[in-house]
Protein: PglZ domain protein
Amino acid sequence: MHPCIQLLVDDFDLEDGEDIHLVNPDDIPHIRQKIYAHLAYGQGALSIRMSSVFFQRFKSFEGGQGITVKRISPFLQLSHQLGEAPPLWLTDALAEKLGLYQRGVLSDELKRLNNSTAKVLALLHSDLLARDSWQAFCVALQQQTSDFINILKIDVVTAYLHAQLSTFMPIEIVAGFLKNLQNCNDIAEFLRVLALEQYWEKLRKVLEQHCWVADIALPARQFSPDLIAQLPELPLQEHQAHDLVVCLCDLLDTVERRIRMDEQKAGVLADFVFVAWPQVLAHLAQLFQDNSDIGTTALRDVLQTMGGDEARKLAVRVNEHLQYAPCEVLPENAPVEQVLDWSERYFSYTLREFLHGREPQNSICQSFSRWVYAQQPRIMRSNADWRSIAPTIEQYLSEDYLVLVFMVDALGAIHADMLERILRERVNDLHIDSRTVFAPLPTLTEVGKAAVLTGQAASEVSSDYEKALRQRYATWLEQPESLKIVKSFRESSEHLDANTRLLVYFENRLDERLHGCLSFAKHREEVEPILKQLTRSLADWVKDAVHLGKKPIILITADHGATTIAQKEACHLTETIIKDRVLQTNEEQAHNLPDDFVFIPGRKPKGYAVPLKRIRFGDTPLTHGGLTPEEVFIPLFTLSREALQADEKIPIKVNVLKPRCPTLEKGWHLELSILPRIRLNKLQLQFNEPFDANTPNYSDLQAHSETKIPLQLVSEQAQSGLTQVDLTLRYLPDKQTTWTSLTVNLSLDLVAPLMQQTQEADNFNKMF
Structure:
């Protein structure tokens, strides 16, 4: 075999596998001698790689017998890797600094990209294309060297990234992000500091919300608040945020101490948990172990949404605590909202006790019984009062809904979980909303049924349900067939009439069977099939309504709940009649009751003596009439086909109470009502130009609680007649740190000022 030598001229180390790689100029004489010797005596091939500078010392060999020269072209190399000629902005030197020559060849899929800039980015890392995930883009960006900053300053690269990243954030935020990135020295450090800034900003929002926390000096912002707030979340590991970890652990200690001293509600601690870092979660777990009171539903929900094994495990521990820990005694002056939150824990605890043949602690039940008796004025002012149901029915009738009301006798809120599960399984095409309501007192059918349906005390309305309903909703029940009453399950197969506006279905089987049950478990078993049969009737009537071209809306509620009580006592009061677990008596006996009884007025001169303790007078353990939470709390479920589904996108309902707005000395008098469907920490109102109004800021607005707002609306321009007025609502939902805006259009009849009316009248008269 004849000897042959190949000289590889490679300035960018693109080739490999050579026999000799010349890197030291002192080796040039030796290698020249080796070439002569190989040509004279050697056999086979010899390859020698060198730079173009060194090749000048070997140029005399070019063209000689047995010698070939191969010049390695970066252009050709990149063309092969990219599947096309590299872009003009990519110089050989820049490609070498970026390490592109060592990146391999693009896949066939990436070669089909019709953008050469995108191909160069893909050669560095496919996630730099920013096509699917902001987080993946950031991880890929962290891996780039400082040389990558150079290509970010090239217009076509900036334009490409600007277009791609705008799918994740507003355009102006993209511009700010890229500008800061171009000016940094270390990409990984820049992203770490920016991510850390995002977390510090989260903490700032939490501290603003909870101003009772001692003043804590946080690091100064290094980036604009808009960039921090609107930039999608950047990845950050715990070891990259030592100072923040220490600060969070200290804050958790502070909040837990305030909770332990009864200075704060336990639920607030969840607001301070927004990172799933091991050290922070371990610290939180230790606090929970030392003080289980911080284990609230809010904390569990936050941990469940975080992801990660540690957060999931801690969420399971908190959930187990919620399920199995006894409920606490209710504070004497607890607000209604706190009592509703407390009821969730109480029902979780009590349901477990009942199903195991036990009863909840008497002290816990008495704490609620005393509270609900003493706090009736406060309950009446809330949206959780039974009196709020009738106005809800009125509202839907006024909005031209066909209203279907299911009055389920003795369906306590303790069964709400079962009802919701059955509804979601069997009528999942309907939007389902639910809340808990206080029933009328005492919790008897003769008291609750008419009261809940009409919004008036039973002593004030007819005991004839049809008559009471026609009187309450007379405006919408002008025709005899406008009201349809279904008195039993046997009648539930009847169809709706074309003129039906309100259907009321009385489901009485639960209460009828209640007193024949010897255990709550047996009662619970009988609840499920009755509710399933109810959903069949519900579905049939919804079909009827749709067939008749009507908008159906369904309300499912009850007159009272029920409890199970083992302790039976004889009645020692005179002139009384036993009614389940209360005693009907007269007003004269009100002052002669034992300390553990209270008197509730009824239809004069009668009233009811109600025990505060867990005792019964009848023969069967399943009973009602008293003041325990399971007797007092009833569910209110609202189901809708379309309207409420659309309303889900509008968390705040704005109503104009009087569309005709009379004039004032300046402007017009306007009355609005605000009804949030979610709890709002803060709410701001702003009328769009040319209108304005001095609107106060509102805070702590409860879900489904109406707020009436009188305003003086003004405009720099003369206005009159029907006018479209835009109102922007900025609101901060509960447990969130980002404000949201909603603009609604109001149609107002603006009465013209008197001078304007007179001028218009004069102009009209001059026409004749």
In short: The longest helix spans residues 520-547. The longest strand covers residues 721-733. The CA atoms of residues 647 and 653 lie 8 Å apart. The chain has a mean pLDDT of 86.
